[in-house]
Design a protein that fits this description.
This protein has helices at about 10-25, 30-35, 40-50, 70-85, 85-100, 105-115, 120-125, 180-190, 225-230, and strands at about 140-150, 155-160, 165-175, 200-205, 235. It has about 250 residues and is an alpha/beta fold.
Length: about 250
């Protein structure tokens, strides 16, 4: 799969640069390369300047925000005063009780404007995209996870390679235990020991992989953790609500 084309935004600063460069006599092709824009965009900016002697206005993309009518604003404030809840809960209550759908973002803006909500700085930040698969080489990281089979109700576990997404070992069991987890990981080690050893293992905080009760030094007697230590495999615990294995 080829690389996705990168969209370069035309800014006011770039428009001013294009106009100055064209006045200096620079070529359209040279300006386009410097600004990482298409030649047609440079021509469009320059032709607009020649016709109007004004910089090109940057058109805003996307749908215009729909302003709420007075009745909707009043309804939001009344329900908020009655329930004293946040925007997401109010969205469901208003839709269920009054049959009117108002997006929670619009509700939140109304509450902010009337001093009934606060800005959450953590949510206002741009979230870093979560990369599910990122290792370049096989066996540098594998994932283990348990789930219930929809076919026969058995407990299913698999050892999945992060880079290639290949299932290195897997099985169905009556119980989710550390011994069964160790058995599958040992099978994966035996199957691919001719190539290289597994460097790291990522799991959740389940008792099959990790002892949640630990002493004051952070140590615990867990069969799976002890197995990893004996085989010099680093144990990585996945953050909460970050499923790593899709069996």
């Amino acid at each position: 799969m080829g690389k996705r084309n990168k969209v370069v935004k035309l800014t006011e600063r770039k428009i001013q640069y294009i106009i100055r460069a064209k006045k200096r006599g620079e070529s359209t092709k040279r300006i386009a390369v410097d600004m990482k824009l298409s030649e047609s965009t440079v021509k469009r900016v320059w032709m607009h300047w020649l016709r109007t002697k004004m910089p090109l206005n940057i058109r805003k993309f996307g749908r215009k925000k729909k302003e709420l009518d007075r009745d909707s604003v009043q309804l939001i404030l009344e329900v908020n005063k009655e329930q004293n809840l946040g925007a997401r809960r109010l969205e469901k209550i208003i839709e269920f009780k009054y049959g009117k759908h108002i997006p929670h973002n619009a509700i939140h803006r109304v509450l902010l404007a009337h001093g009934r909500a606060n800005v959450n700085r953590n949510k206002a930040k741009r979230r870093k995209p979560w990369v599910r698969w990122e290792r370049d080489h096989s066996l540098t990281l594998v994932h283990l996870d348990w789930h219930d089979s929809d076919i026969n109700g058995k407990k299913v576990c698999a050892v999945l390679d992060d880079s290639s997404r290949r299932i290195l070992a897997g099985g169905e069991f009556d119980e989710e235990t550390s011994d069964n987890s160790i058995r599958l990981l040992q099978e994966a080690l035996d199957n691919f020991e001719w190539l290289t050893s597994i460097s790291q293992v990522m799991t959740d905080h389940g008792t099959q992989f990790y002892a949640n009760k630990r002493d004051k030094n952070g140590n615990a007697d867990c069969g799976f953790e002890n197995f990893l230590k004996r085989n010099k495999i680093k144990h990585i615990l996945a953050p909460a609500k970050r499923q790593q294995v899709a069996v």
